Amino acid sequence: MKRLLGGGACLSRCCPLLLLLALLRLGSSSGACPCGDPALCRPIAGTPEFEVFVFDVGRKTWKFYDWSQITTVAAFGKYDPELLCYAHSKGARVVLKGDVPVKEIIDSANRTAWIARQVDLAKKQYMDGINIDIEQEVIVMSPEYYALTALVKETTDAFHREIPGSQVTFDVAWSPACIDKRCYNYSGIADACDFLFVMSYDEQSQVWTECIARANAPYNQTLDGYDDYISMSIEPKKLVMGVPWYGYDYRCLDLSKDHVCSLPNISFRGAPCSDAAGRQVTYGTIMKQVNSSISGSLWDEEQKAPYYEYKDSLGHFHQVWYDNPQSISLKATYAKKRGLRGIGMWNGNCLDYSRSSVAEQQTEAMWRALRP
C-alpha cells in the first residue's frame, strides 16, 4: 500500500475517506458491457412501491422466475452476465453478496480496502449494489460491534457516491434478541443502509425448551420479531420480510400419536437443542414427497404451518416442516398491513421449475403468495 499510495500509511490512520477515494480511483474502470443493449448496463434507479427481494444461488432457474414481481436479485452464485442483462431489462436490480470476517474490519484501513474492492467489482460487473450477509457472532459493545456498524455506513456511503441509485442492504436474524449470538447494533445498522432483510426462517436454530420438531418460521414468533425491531425505532419501511422456500426434515427419536416428534439434543451457539438435528429440503423436493407420505399434508394451527410424516427405508419415522402458499400468504398479508418495505425469500432456486403442469401450478402459487 505504501508503494502504491506514497503516504498510504498516514492516509489509513488519518483519513479513511481519502484512502477509499484513492483506492476507488485506482480501480474505477468498468469492464465491457455484456448486454446487447448498452443501456442495460446502466444502474437501476428509483424506489419500488413494494420490494420483492430474491436470493439466487446460481444455475439458470432465474429464467423461470416471476419477473413481473421482482425488484432486486441478490446474486449469491457465480456471476452471470445473462442474468444481469435480463434483470435490468425487467427493471430489477442485481446486487453483490458481501461477506468478510468481522475481526478483519476492526482496522479501519482493512475496512476501507474491503469496501473499495466491492465497489470496484460492482462497477466491473455493472451491479446495482451489495447485500451484506454477515452472520457471525458479535458481542455487544465489543470492537466488532462498532466495526460492523461502521462497515455498513461506510459501504453505503461509498456505493451511493460511486454508483448513483445503488442499493446497500444488510441481512439480520428473525429477531434482534441476540439470535445465534449475533448481538449487532441493529438500529444503527438500519439507519446506515437502505434497508434490512429480515431472515424470518431458521427460527429453531436455538431451542431452549423441549427438543421437538417445530415449524421453520412459526407465524406468531415471526411477527414478534418484527414488533421487536420496530420497538427499537426502526421504521417498518426499513424492513423487508424474508420467508423460506425450504423446510426441515427431522428424523424422530419418537413420534407420538399426537404428532410430537422428539429430537436428539444437538447444540448450537450455547443452546442445548437446534434445527441442526434436521436437514434442509427445498419446496420442490417436498412437493414430490408429501403426497406419498404416511400422513399427507397436515396443518398446525398454533404455528400456522404445514408438515407431514413419512417412514424411511430403514423404518425410521420423519417429520417435515415447511412453508407453503397458505403459510406464506398469511405473513405477506401482515407485511403489507404493517407497512413493511417488502418481502423476499431464501431462495428463488428452491422451487420445481420443470415444465410439468403440476410443478407449474405449485410454482405459480408460491410466487403469487408473495403478493396476496
What is this structure's SSE topology?
Blueprint: H1 2-5, H2 8-14, H3 16-26, E1 51-56, E2 72-75, H4 81-89, E3 93-98, H5 108-124, E4 129-132, H6 143-162, E5 167-173, H7 186-192, E6 195-199, H8 219-231, E7 239-244, E8 246-251, E9 254-255, E10 261-262, E11 278-282, H9 283-289, E12 298-300, E13 305-311, E14 317-321, H10 325-337, E15 342-346, H11 357-368
Parallel strand pairs: 1-2, 1-15, 2-3, 3-4, 4-5, 5-6, 6-7, 7-15
Antiparallel strand pairs: 8-11, 8-14, 9-10, 12-13, 13-14
Helix pairs in contact: 2-3, 3-5, 5-6, 6-7
What can you see in these coordinates?
InterPro entries: Chitinase_II/V-like_cat (IPR011583), Chitinase_insertion_sf (IPR029070), DIAC_cat (IPR047898), GH (IPR017853), GH18_Domain-Containing (IPR051887), Glyco_hydro18_cat (IPR001223), Glyco_hydro_18_chit_AS (IPR001579). Pfam families: Glyco_hydro_18. This is Di-N-acetylchitobiase. Residues 1-372 form the GH18 domain. With 372 residues, the protein is α/β, with parallel strands linked by helices. It has a domain at 44-245 and 323-370: Alpha-Beta Barrel (TIM Barrel). 32% of the residues lie in helices and 20% in strands.
Summarize the structure.
It is found in: Lysosome. By secondary structure, this protein is of the alpha/beta class.
Taking the sheet with the most strands, its summary is:
8 strands, parallel, barrel
Question: Using only CA atoms, what is the Rg?
Answer: 22 Å
Please tally the β strands and state the result: 15
Looking at CATH, which topology of the domain at 44-245 and 323-370 would you report? TIM Barrel
Helix content: 25-40%
Order of helices and strands: HHHEEHEHEHEHEHEEEEEHEEEHEH
Question: From the 3D coordinates, which CATH architecture of the domain at 44-245 and 323-370 would you assign?
Answer: Alpha-Beta Barrel
Count of DSSP-assigned helices: 11
Distance between the termini: 53 Å
Assigned CATH class of the domain at 44-245 and 323-370: Alpha Beta
Low-confidence stretches: 1-14
**Name of the CATH homologous superfamily of the domain at 44-245 and 323-370:** Glycosidases
Strand order of the largest sheet: 1-2-3-4-5-6-7-15
- Mass-distribution shape: globular
**Portion in beta strands:** 15-25%
Q: What structural class do the secondary elements suggest?
A: alpha/beta
Round the mean pLDDT to the nearest integer and report it: 93
